[in-house]
Design a protein that fits this description.
Strand order of the largest sheet: 1-2
Number of strands: 4
Strand content: under 5%
Radius of gyration: 22 Å
Order of helices and strands: HEHEHHHHHHEEH
Largest sheet: 2 strands, parallel
Helix content: 25-40%
């Protein structure tokens, strides 16, 4: 874990470098909110990796010019389908729902077409990534999970997060041991190619365990949580050093009221 003062290119570049050094320079899939500096860092350090944009955050920008419940539902439907033909059909519906009213007006479909669907539409994700995720709810959930610790001094914050993760890893490891994978739905399955006509089986862990990749099976999940964070001495057993005690970080006050709660986007 590390703490930085601001999200910028230098810090993102350092973080991505350290991350890739640990996990290896493979064909990873990154998902982001297009944070400042992150796009440039990923393009430089991991140009071969798939990079997705969280659809929930994408919609926040989309809604500034094209608000409304109807368009929101259409955007979500276009992003969620696993079939490219259906994706094209849903984009046409967006075109029909928001027609051009003047030469200077950018329609909802024109706005979306500026962003390659490989970044946000499930139907265009790489099959090799074995992931159908279109929103970063996992990250947002973790942010809420550690919310209590974020106002603590740095050492106390790290200790709080470390002990929480110790318990969580053990809980996930125990839970998956009792999990049973079962087939889901009726579709045409090509056993040789390990593909399904629904289009989602190649991208999701809900696939029939007999045809999906080994990385989506129970054994791989168990390997993910096979490691543990070991206990360390408590605060009473900390060693004294010749260094000055760590002070609180410098906080730059941002404009507006700070947000504690985050909105959820239903998959």
């Amino acid at each position: 874990m590390a703490v930085v003062q601001v999200e910028n290119f230098d810090n993102w570049r350092w973080f991505i470098s350290e991350l890739l050094e640990d996990i290896g320079f493979g064909r990873w899939t990154f998902m982001s909110d297009k944070q400042k500096g992150l796009l440039e860092a990923l393009n430089e350090l991991a140009p071969e990796c798939e990079h997705r944009f969280c659809v929930r955050h994408l919609y926040q920008n989309f809604a500034r010019k094209h608000p409304g419940v109807e368009l929101k539902g259409m955007l979500r439907a276009a992003a969620s389908t696993s079939n490219k033909n259906e994706f094209s059909m849903r984009i046409k519906r967006i075109e029909a729902a928001d027609r051009k009213t003047s030469p200077y007006y950018e329609t909802a479909a024109e706005w979306l077409n500026k962003i390659p669907p490989a970044h946000w539409a499930r139907s265009h994700f790489l099959i090799s990534s074995f992931s159908d995720v279109i929103v970063n709810n996992m990250t947002e959930s973790f942010n809420i999970y550690i919310l209590e610790a974020r106002d603590m001094p740095i050492i106390s914050m790290f200790e709080w997060i470390r002990t929480k993760l110790m318990s969580r890893i053990q809980m996930k490891r125990t839970g998956i041991k009792n999990y049973i994978q079962t087939p889901n739905g009726q579709n045409v399955v090509d056993l040789a190619k390990k593909e399904c006509s629904c289009g989602s089986n190649q991208r999701t862990s809900d696939a029939d365990f007999r045809i999906c990749s080994p990385i989506l099976q129970k054994e791989a999940y168990l390997r993910t949580y096979s490691y543990m964070i070991h206990a360390v001495p408590g605060e009473d057993d900390y060693c004294n050093t010749e260094y000055e005690p760590l002070g609180p970080p410098e906080v730059k006050k941002r404009a507006g009221r700070p947000k504690k709660k985050r909105k959820k986007w239903n998959r």
